[in-house]
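tool_call: predict_structure(chain=1)
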Amino acid sequence: MPYKKLTQTQSRIIIGMKETLKAMKKGDVSEVFIADDADHQITDRVIALAEELEIPYRRVASMKDLGTACGIDVGTSTAAIKQQ
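tool_result:
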């Protein structure tokens, strides 16, 4: 389950589209998680950049579950794991 990886790397999580895009452009991201129920105008930008930079990404079911896995009380459209 992809959420397990997020819960195990709490100290290296990047939450939200803007922060994820910034970190991806800097080369700081090892993997991206994208909620299927998020606005596609938001997620399409993240997917396009992930594909361009050859960063692996996973789709997850919901924003709420993604937020919970990240340790926050609200949903999030995207999250990423920083490289070690």
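agent: Residues 24 and 53 are 8 Å apart (CA to CA). Proceeding to next step.
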